[in-house]
Fold these 2 entries.
Entry 1:
Amino acid sequence: MKDLSLHILDIVQNSIRAKANLIRIEIVERPDEDQLIITIADNGAGMSAEQMKLAIDPFYTSRTIRKVGLGLSLLKQNAEMTNGSFHIESEPGTGTKVTAVFGMNHLDRPIMGDLVGTLLLLICSSEETNYVFKHQTPSGEFELDTRAIRQVLENVPITHPDVRSFLKEMLYENLEQIQISE
Amino acid sequence: MNKIKSLADLKKLQSDVQSKIKLREKGDHSENLVQIKVSMATCGIASGAKETMTYFIEELDHQGIDAVITQTGCMGYCYAEPTIELTIPDQQPVVYGFVNKVKALEIIEKHIKLNEMVDGIIPVTYHSIEN
């Protein structure tokens, strides 16, 4: 993956396949401790202890269409390459939580990339899935809950082009506020 | 300094959009619309499916073409990512491989607007007459 936002997009697809309807994405930047933490937690089907061990094996997948499943393996590799760590916890029936810690200042850490574009694709492509997005940096915190957005929108679909461009601007403006120079 | 957009601003937009939607209630069923499914598994994302999907959403909106654009899983054509499945109403779905922005525009201009297939269909049984 070229950047961290693509990793997020990729891992969230796992949650969608696990039939989650609420997905929490959290990014915490702690430059003083040299940490950038990405957490993705869902309320999907979850995995048994056995499946969880296999999940990070690149040659394991729950799909039948192909024989490899690289999403988690690539994230783990990228995180560990930057002196970070990777952790996954899951409970059948309650959901899965993936945590990747990156060495924030490490030379090999991928850039964040187009986070707004990634979030827009996720938020505006499904009527059923809800997202809670949190981004925390030393300059502030931003939180977005699509359930609150849906409440305001009432019967207007979140996929409507006008809503999409509004959310795009809203995300850009808010994330700019809390941005710290990379 | 401009005020940052908030949920209160969204409320204003909501009433505007709602009145627009009421004007065109009929014919809004998704089976009457062009449908595009973008393959979005690890293989697709790593090859740029995100750019392709964003391009389709923005270009079709820009041109005023109503379409349903969704994400789907891996279709098994990992070598040909990004792949899309295009369904024109009342026609069989068609899968295109290696869909970058240039290809995406070609598909919009020819297949979606003129109903004329272009090169790049998987499986490779179709070639346009120039080839």
Note: Residues 34 and 65 of chain B are 9 Å apart (CA to CA).
Entry 2:
Amino acid sequence: MRFSDLLGMAAVALARHRLRTGLSLLGVAIGVTAVVLLTALGEGARKYVSGQFQALGTNLLIVLPGKTETTGAFPGFGGAPNDLTLQDARAIRRRVPQAELVVPVAIGNETVSHAERRRQTIVIGATKDFLEARRLGLAHGEFLPDIDWERAMPVAVLGPDLARELFRDENPLGAIVRVGDARVRVIGVLEPRGTQLGLDVDEVVIVPVASAMRIFNRSSLFRLLIQVAAHSELAHAQQRVVGIISERHGEEDVTCVTQDSVSGGLNAILAVLTLAVAGIAAVSLTVAGIGIMNVMLVSVSERTSEVGLLRALGARRAQVRALFVVEAILLSGAGGAVGLGVSWLLTRLFLAWYPAFPAAAPAWAVGAALGLSLAVGAIFGVLPASQASRLDPVLALRKT
Amino acid sequence: MIELEGIWRTYQMGGEELHALADVSERIEPGEHVAIMGPSGSGKSTLLNVLGCLDRATRGTYRLGGREVQDLSDIELSRVRQAEIGFVFQSYHLVGRLDAAGNVELPMVFAGLPRKERRRRVLEAVRAVGLEDRMRHRPAELSGGQRQRTAIARATIMGPRILLADEPTGNLDSASGRQVLDLLEQMNAAGLTLIVVTHDPAVARRADRILLLGDGRVVRRLAGSEVAEIAQLLAPRVGEP
């Protein structure tokens, strides 16, 4: 028996019961749509986060006060025996030749006001190299001046959204704003950049690091950003940085991570999450498979006398079995194709709404979803098909 | 040639043995027209199923064209049915979703014949049964006689040597029944061995011989012309339904 004949006979049999076929097909289509769409979203999230890290550069070392091994706390959240200071930063700049940029960063939450308008926002204390280290750009004015790190200076650079909120249509450059109790002059406005690793850069105030530490009344830095000249020197620079801080503090009480490792870790987590979500969605395909099995069992029961006839006409058991299996595979395969079409359409719609989110199902997910839908048909079609092929032709012919 | 030697077909019914066929021995020559008659439950259909290799004898020897078939594998029996035996049923057994041509084509699909060859043979077969103009109609759009002629075209499409017909006119009016019997007789005259199970003496009369079955055994062998005798034997007695 030719495969094209098998396919043709299966198609004719399915077309006979349009509603039943349509409903079973819908079940598989929903399952495949769920797998592909959720994978697309998961993959989109992974690419989005990865893109955020890439945007910050891959040659970045981040030093945080505290060490998980010594304190048991998350680095940067209490338990640090020694402060991470501007002197530490200065020592690193002096003694690590691979360090292209060293940026001490202090972060806090303060009220920022201008005239009657005020709001609570993130205040970042940094130096002039922060702009390059975080790959930011200026829309107006200038960034922090190249001054001694210990020197507090009453100047600030605003994120574009914050500038708009505080100044509406006025030009903020040269205007005075209050950051906590300090009065500072606006010298620049950042280019819109959106959220970078959970921090909405468009809403921050950036002041010199010494000014920030004074505003927050804090002696410890939040972290150090170190940009290394070449990616190949990252590991060596990391060792040097930890060595210098340990030497200064008398113990290893900082955590030094590379942008790569954070990005890689997150990537791995999101990839596992994507797989898990796709796996959960695949359960719906199993449910659809049971639906197909049910439909095929009904079909075998309805066509018992037909099976008897086919056997009388010389059809072998294997041919009868193949007839029903191909029918189930065709049903689930068509459902898979419809599901792929729908998921492609939904992904396009999603991208139209959120163009910044790179949602796209990877080729493996599309292939796996289609393969899975065909497998579902094959697996759940086997039982009804075997039942049909085992029918006694004499008894089957008697059934009307 | 069909040779049956001591054929038994036994079923287990609640621990008891029921003999649907009991020691049937018969020889049917190529091109013969044989009618099988007998009351309900006498084993007519069972004999037809055994002859058609749809059922296996419990005991005995069945030789078809000199080859013993009772011990053949399922696949080999399928091949025998496909190539050597055609079936015609009382209720036609046409596939409702296929048109007449599609139904006639079915055995060739399972035999794996090329599409072109199938089309040619279908056209020939529907012409032979006078259904050329109805070949694209589905069974529901055909009369009883047309359905049975479609079934006959399907039964003979693979060029079998034997045609087994189970009450072929049972669901037909007398005019359609006559047409169908004429068609079967034409085929028989062309060399096809025809074995018909029937209750109808008018059908049996056309046969070369009649086998009368009772309780699974051949109780009488008569010529077709002696059918009146059998009709008497089979007539319901007073008090019977």
Note: Residues 2-201 of chain B form a domain with the Rossmann fold fold (CATH 3.40.50.300).
